[in-house]
Fold each of these.
Amino acid sequence: MDGGYDWKLSKYIDGYDSASYFSVRQSEGFHKAIETIKSFYNNGIRVSVAVTPLYDGIDEFVEKFEAFAKHFLKQYPNVFIKLNLELLQGREVNTSKTENKEM
């Protein structure tokens, strides 16, 4: 890219497949999100991906997301992936900063 800009895309996918994405987002956007990430990456844009799992089923989610991330990074090794385990307010979860640190 020209113009002296350091372009970067940050994308939240909140899932490791269509079903897990839908359980968080209540929409069918997983494949579009993944294709967007690939497109920006292939055009030289630095890409970071973040995911915040739901509290219910968090252990299974983390395990399956780890497998997804390892596979994805084999093809797109310079994508930064962050699994956010801090529980966010809302989604029927209320936690303090202390409780988040203890989890």
Amino acid sequence: MNKMNFLLATNAKLGPILPFVLSSIYDNQPAASVYLYYSALAEEDLKKISSVAKTFNGELNLIHFDIKQILDQQGLKDIPAWFGSYDAYTRIFAIQDLYEKGIDKCIYVDCDVMILKPLDELFSIYSRTDAIAGVLDVMPDTNKFKTPYYLNSGVMIFALDYCRKIKFPDKCVAFLKDYADQSGFMDQDAINNAIKDTVPICLDPKFNNLLRDFEHVENAVIMHYAGPKPWDFWRKWDHSKFVYYKLKLYYYLKSKGCNISKETLTRLFKVLEFVLHPLVLLLNWVHDVNFKRRMRRKARRNAKK
């Protein structure tokens, strides 16, 4: 099994889902070394995360990282937060930190991803010394700064010495100083602008699947739950959400010593998804009605201002 280094950046809000994210990494890439940078994590979540590593006999490196202090030191004291958090910027500086620790390459993954299948196909790209790789972003209106390539930063491969040579962290910082207040996707915009003079490797979308329909989810190697989160139980249901809860149950049972196979759970959840389909349609209809109602109320309030 090929060894791969994984970089994640998180905070206390995402702590409860991390055991399942890490389980999906170790399960599909047993030779993984995980470098988890965090600004804050509850003691209970730290124990659960460490327990997952022991269950899978995986290598785990927990690195406390005061990202706000780092941003202040870089002259980015007033940079906007991303949904109330600064941790999205951590990857920019963690790349330099990993290089200084003697790490030569890594796969960065957001904490709202699940690894669904082994990553053997990625290893030839991961092994390159000049690789910055990712999946082209499929979401509308993301490439505001019109870079030649615009990668979704939720899953990326970095050759760290190459990042040093192209002055990746410095370019990200320079962009954020000039354009953070104009950017819609701060860290992602910074990363894409830092590599705009290179030719990144564009991965197959199955390695960072952002789409929720049945075909794309079944084909996905890495599922990225950007947007509505599957752990928000009352949000809209689709096939990707059933996949999430299937894996969550599988890894929970595995942590309790139950050796039910993933294939057995897959068959059970297919039946469950079929049986619950009418209820799912009703729940999604209620969600859509409530959403439209909230939008109309919001529009009326804005019109009165």
Amino acid sequence: MKAKTYNVLRLVIFVTIIIGTFSFANAQNATEKPKPHNASQAVVPPSSEAADSALGDSLAADSLTVDTAATAQEVTAEQLLPLESDGMFKSLKKKFIDGSPGYMSLVAIALVLGLAFCIERIIFLTLASVDTNRLMDDLTKRIESRDIEGALQLCNETHGPVASLCEEGLQRIDEDIETIERAITAHGTLQAASLEKGCSWITLFISMAPALGFLGTVIGMVIAFDQIQMAGDISPTIVASGMKVALITTIFGIIVALILQLFYNYILTKIERLTFEMEEAAILMLDQIVKYKQNR
């Protein structure tokens, strides 16, 4: 894939993720209408007259007990129904709002930007991967048949750092072997640096996400103490509101760091594999160039 096409693809990924972030943030600020609960009220029979018998009072008491039990069952069923119908997204959205959108938005931005860099690196490394064994076999055949132009054309048509490394050696095939080795080593260093481009940003967001969560924890604790000071009393209800913000922000910060860490380790694995393939290809290419010079 050409460099221009890859840059356009990378721009589209970033724009799409940023638009999705703002859409998600707007959805958090939208207030949900409460669902009405149509709970039937218990019907209390009118009071009996003083002249009623004890049997009539007993029947009235039994009727009230049955109506109250039926009402309690209906209310409980209606309250549990929304909980069962709510999906995972709605639950996360509720927790996001409970953790204060102001603080949680920072954690969400860290997640989105970190994922953007992860996706960009994964696409780049996937496009840079080639069948190294097949490429080196084809190059070996062309070098042995002394078709250097064909070998250069094959390297030029093949994407990835391995082909670029081989092309660098073939372009200097008329120079001495020490010069060729230094050129391949220098070019390999540049290619390895291009593979790791953007990884520092991923590690930054991995470190920032828990830090932002802990920041929300400290702010939540400050809110709790302020509310205690204003109320002049230590009440579980007052303390719980601030503690809830503190714990939710910490949880989401750790979750974001774990998600980004998984992607980062996957990226490092692909980089290590490509680096190993580059080193192996450089050794094989130097061997073929030495043989080519000896058979002149």
